[in-house]
Every structure is written in C-alpha cells, then in structure tokens.
Amino acid sequence: MLRPCRVICVALSVFGFLAFSFTRPTENIPSLTQPASSGIFTADVGSSILEKGLPPAGNSDEVRNSTLGFERVFVINIPERYDKLDAFSLASSLTGFSHDVIEGIKGATVVNKTLPSLDNLPKKERSRNNIVGCWRAHLNFAQKIVRERIQTAIVFEDDSDWDVSFKDQLADFASGTRYISGTTTTPRSPYGDDWDLLWLGHCSTQQHPADERRFVIENDDTVPPMAHRVNFNKVPKLNELGYDNSTRIVFRANNGVCLYSYALSYRGAQKVLWWQNNVPKFEPIDIGIGYQCRDDSNFKCIAVFPQLVDSHKSAGRASRDSDIATYDPRHVREKGYTQNIVRSTRLNIDNLMQGGGSAKVEDQWSDLPQLTMPRRTRFE
Questions:
Q1: CA-CA distance, 28 to 107, in Å (whole number)?
Q2: Distance between CA 94 and CA 204 in Å, rounded?
Q3: Per-residue pLDDT tens for 322-363?
Q4: Is 288 helix (H, G, I), strand (E, B) or coil?
Q5: Which residues contact 314 (CB under 8 A, 6 or more apart)?
Q6: In sequence order, which residues have a C-beta less than 8 Å from that of residue 376 and are 6 or more positions away?
Q7: Percentage of residues in the chain having pLDDT higher than 70
Q8: Side-chain-side CA neighbours of residue 17 (13 Å)
Q9: Rounded Cα distance, 353 and 336, in Å
Q10: Taking a C-beta distance cutoff of 8 angstroms, is the pair 368, 184 a contact?
C-alpha cells in the first residue's frame, strides 16, 4: 500500500534523514511574542478542564465531537486496500469520530514534469514511485482543504492507532495549542486560530529554538514509559528538561519525521502547497514538511511529545503491513502492537465492542507506573 509515511516515508526518509540530523537552519527565525502570565491547574482524566490564566477556551468541548474539533477528518487509503480502511473505520467508530477518504496515489502515475525538482529523487523506479506517491497524496490533502475552503482538517494514515482515551488527550492538547498559538480572544477553533500545522503523530520532533514555551501535562497515565518509547531520530529529552516519565509536552515544532497524523488550517494548507511545490531539492513529504516547520518563520507548527498517534502492526502475516516492502512470507506476527500508545484502540477493539461503556481496557505493557496524583497541566 502506498501509505502516507510509515513504510514509504520512513523508508524514504533514508534520503533525507542524515540531512535532518545534521543540517542547521538556513535562516534566523525571529522570536515569537511571549505571554507574560503563567499558571497551573488540575483536572481528573475525562473531566472538563478548568482554565486558569489560559487563553479563552471558547468551544473547547468540540474536541469530543464527531470530527474531533476540526471541520473535517480524513484518512489516506489506497483503494485496493479495503482491509486497511475496514480496520481504520472500525477503530474510529469505536472512538466516536467519522472520516472521509483521500485516495492514496501510485507514484507511477505522477510524471516528473509535475515535481518541483528532480534533484535528490531516487534513481530506482520502485523507490522513486513510493516517495512520489506519498508526496502527492499529502499534497492532495492540502489541495482539498484549499479548493473546498475547509478551515481546519486532520488526516490519518490508514494504519494509525491512538489511545482509547484519545478525546481526553485532545482536550489537553487543545489547551496546549491555544497557549502556544498565543490565543487571546475566544477562538473559533478549540485548538486556537493562529496555527498552520498540528503534528499529533510523528516518529521524531524537536522544539523550535525561537520559542521556548511549553504546555506541560503531568501525571498522565497515557504517557508511555521510557522503555517503551520508540522514535527514529531526535525528540525532546524530557528527563533532562526536568520532567518525569509521566509527562507530556506541547510546543512549537522545529522539525519532524513521519506523518501518522497531523492537522492543517486553511492558511497552513496554502503554505504547504506553495512551499512543497517550489523547493529546490525534492524531499520525502515528511522531511519536506519538517524543513518547512524549521525554515519558514511564518509557518507555525505545533507538536506534542510523546506523540498521540502512531502506526499499528497487526497480528498475522507481516506481508500485509505494506504493498511496498519485501517480507519473508513465512513471518507471522503472533500479536499486534503499536509503538508509544499505552491503551491501543486497535488492540482493544474486541473489548470495546463487547463491553460497551463498561468495557475492560487492556494496557499494552505490564510495567506501567501506578500514578497516585491527579493529572495536572501548567504552562511555561
């Protein structure tokens, strides 16, 4: 399957990965205006958040609606992979959100004259097609937002997974995005109105050096322990920043890899279409968007770490994971898994279907810490 960035864009990231690790920003990005206030508040998991000293919440409860507080929800799926769309549809229905489909693109149908540059394009046809198909599918997502004048939209890969308490997580994330985006008046969106990209699902991200603010979520039992965090490149070193292993942070992003899930505003989609179609060197789309977050001072990217969305590997034949990578046909996965997600929705589907509102939810790991303090959020 020409998936939007796990097998394609993680495999394709080989071409941009070293540059991501060692290339420095090409321009000095001006510091953002820093709010003068700071504050702290507590909330039990699943309860309404009591704002104290934060920007106006406005319609913050909309993160729990059928579009997760965005105007639209999309999933990228190549048409012949009905199984992927079946699984995603089931997981999203049990979480309580709907979605529309952006068709995945076969790279062989994208001719070279439509690409911004042939520099850095893989020479092998298969690799080229994988990268280009992924790139074009994501630009079609941005194009749809612009063509239909959608104000905000979130997109997922069709093998994405999230915690069973995803909407509770989004409530905290939305408080963080309103803070980082500098919301000072009642916003139209629960996520605030001054952002371009929200990066919820990634495999690497860093904080922007021009903006040191953080929204901190403490005593969060959906944060994976250090031993179970898997990322492909640099991430914030939370322990070195003084946070414990049950802390999640929201911040302005400087870079990133993997596009398991992200949201664009209308203006953000415009910027993505312009930037990615005018780069001097072709990059895999996740690398390209990461560079745009880093190098374009007018492109406001906000990320969360640890991530809220990751890629699921299902039980059964590993060859079903992708139509691109080569697998030993004898390799059968006895149990499915999702990196970085404590209570995987995919792994709890049977429990959620049978248990209704009182479903018994299973953790992925047995060595989770027992938290005794209520979840607490603060901003720095």
A1: 35
A2: 28
A3: 655 566 777 778 888 999 999 999 999 999 998 766 668 999
A4: helix
A5: 87, 159, 320, 321, 333, 336, 346
A6: 40, 41, 42, 43, 217, 218, 219
A7: 81
A8: 14
A9: 18
A10: no
